[in-house]
Amino acid sequence: MKPVLVSGIQPTGRLHLGNYLGALKHFVELQKSGKYECYFFIADLHSLTETFSPEEKTDQINNLAVDYLAAGLDPEKSTLFIQSLSPAHTEMAWVLNCITPFGELRRMTQFKEKSENDPENINVGLFTYPVLMAVDILFCNPQFVPVGEDQLQHLELTRTLARKFNTRFGKTFTEPKPLLTEVPRLMSLDDPTKKMSKSRPAGCLFLDDTPEEVLSKIKTATTDSGKEIVYDTDKKPGVSNLLLIYSNLSKQSISSLEKRYQSKGYAEFKKDLARVVVESLLPFQTNKKELMNKPGGIKKIFEAGSKKAASIANKKLIEVKKKIGLVL
Ligand code: AMP
Ligand code: TRP
After folding, report:
1. 209 shares its domain with 279
2. What is the CATH number of the domain that holds 285?
3. pTM over 0.90
């Protein structure tokens, strides 16, 4: 049997290059390797922890479904599903809530950051978010979870909860490991000391940006003092971030890029990088345009995947209920 892996993304807006290089592109590569049984989902319940409107939410879910397929996730090879279509997920989250120490959740960096960024909307969902995430992971006995660096703390909590449950009630859950890419934390274009995040749209390259937008954003991206194009995250965080993007999308090593641009200026480097980004995004954008015309087919794909995931989660829930002494 192949090792299982699982991951999800929240439908909260347009995907940016950080989501792509830290997660989605990796999902596609892992799927293509054929070495894993893959589950990828749309974390719609998690996304309710941020302010939203119903119309916008439906669009965001549909848009992410299209993004998954446009990037190359394939329902023939991976199970693609929507979190809210598996009721056992939330029921199991309640059980895990009851073994999760309050103090563990209070120290979660994402909770602290999001509460600070949006003090008007510090809801209980935001607080228990990592517990539902633990269920998203543990329901299918995975060995691996491909995520960006910002999710490592949540994954560590997942492992802690799995261990705790297993010790108290008998072996039920696996303890999965993270899988990081070479770009686990892409930095913002306008401030390379902060991670690229949709909460700071000015620093994001979005996957559906036009060539003009890409060029203009890269042209104005913060670079550092001096003229050298070298990778040095302490002294030259801006240039290093751009080199990382260039290297990852063009599959050229950072050292070969440093050599190539040894006696060249930022302007030429940035112009070339913009071309690399535009060319790399083109297949995704072309696929996306085509898929937009087939909403019915996409719905069917996610319904079928959700049925499968819901049934696996339900089996796990029954196992959990038996272990904790709930009568069936
Ligand atoms: P989210 O949009 O928060 O649901 O994130 C989806 C995935 O993208 C998660 O695996 C994140 O860890 C990853 N991710 C988000 N921002 C970045 C970033 N700046 N660099 C690398 N990965 C990221
Ligand atoms: N919390 C993740 C994020 O913001 C999304 C997510 C929810 C997730 N459940 C998950 C990722 C399970 C991996 C596994 O990016």
Report:
1. yes
2. 1.10.240.10
3. yes
In a domain, 193, yes or no: no
Kindly state if the Cβ of 46 falls inside 6 Å of ligand 2.
yes
Convert the pLDDT of each residue in 86-116 to its tens digit.
999 999 999 999 999 999 999 999 999 999 9
Number of residues that this document lists for the chain: 328
179 CA to centre of ligand 1 in angstroms: 13
**pLDDT tens-digit map of 52-87:** 999 999 999 999 999 999 999 999 999 999 999 999
State whether 229 and 101 are in the same domain: no
The residues near 68 (Cβ < 8 Å, ≥ 6 apart) are: 24, 40, 42, 80
Cα–Cα nearest to 226, from 216, 236, 234: 236
184 pocket-lining for ligand 1 (C-beta < 6 Å): yes
Residue with the smallest CA separation from ligand 1 atom 15 is: 19
